[in-house]
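Field: sequence (string)
Field: structure_tokens (string)

Example rows 1 and 2, in order.
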Amino acid sequence: MVAVKTIGILGAGKLGITLAQLARKAGYKVYVAGSGDPEKIALSVQVLAPGAHAVRSKDAARISDIVVLAMPLGKYRKIPVDTLEGKLVVDAMNHWWEVDGPRDDLLSSDMSSSEAMQEFLPNSRVVKALNHMGYHDLHDEARPATMPGRKAIAVAGDVQADIDTVSQIINALGFDPLYIGVLSTGRALEPGHPAFGADENKTALLQLVSR
């Protein structure tokens, strides 16, 4: 398990900013990268996620202990592959036809998006998480482990140490981590499947994943 102090977020949209807010509240150093010049997002990052820093994608990848992909899936080819070598990468991306176009133009139909990301990032370690709950629910539902009614975030991955690391971060962000299986099982968290959009506790989320 990696000792994480710094989180890089590639994507400065609603999900990326929400994750930056939660990570800052949890005490992590946070670096957010948009699609271009960091000056374009610097003010919104400063206002919406105080303490987070707007940087370029390569810099976020280089200086962070763990990197979250929160960008449109259709832009995955812009991910700094070489800079992410040896890094733990959390795939929080989803395919949206309106934004990304036909899924088959981006990914093989016989694999999950996270398996495709692992193939694209052969020297990184990919875990699927933080994609199935809407950004508004992520913002509103985060709470300490001591509070009742805590919601769950599913995690899929192939390496136990990486699963443990991501689970620890999810717990720090304010949610119960739920391990659902190897990376390929992350397909159950994608749009069009029962667990997508789930804002549930561990028991209810597991039932949705299993359907």
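Row 2 begins here:
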Amino acid sequence: MNKHILYIEDDPEIGKWVTGHLTDNGYEVVWLTSGERALEYAEPCDLVILDVMLPGLDGFTVGQRLKKKLPDLPILLLSARTTIEDKLQGLHFADDYVTKPFHPDELTARVEVLLRRSGKLVSAVLELRHLLVYPEENRIVDTRTGAEVVLTGKQHQIFRYFLQHPNQILTKEQIYEAVWRECYLEGDKTLMVHIRYLREKLEADPGNPEIIETVRGIGYRVRV
């Protein structure tokens, strides 16, 4: 079941970017542009990502109110403020403090750590042929050798997208636009090259793939 995140951010560009990244990584996101209704939306959520600089109630005030009412709800603060005083003020009630600018993969990793620490995220193991996949740990082990399979950033994003859509036939356009966050141009071989290199690392026989299937004329599929 997807985890639900309440995200409070007034900057439309940053908000859209972060919401898109979290959604692509399998989270259900409710995005608010102010903290006035935070308590109303927070209760059914598994985690809150909260910007400090907000119109009206600032993030420190909103976060303190949330923590008082929902003490077990993990809160991750985002802020351009980098002084130790601000961090200490935030960490007085929040569970983590991330300074801007930040990489979206770092944010996702911190979210997973908080969810796991709070007991809201249980690490599952997925068996795919000769592979053991630990989705929440971003780890893949080849059972034939016991060695960990190391993927590049893009290879990891592509494979993770497959795992978020198990047994579904995904078009090249869907995969490319989800991973690169750009419009797919017909004839572009970028995805095909990445799939080939990904198969070389994952498949027992890359020439006859059994994990990442090609569906002729449409795209690819991973059966789980």
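free_text_note (row 2): The mean pLDDT is 90.
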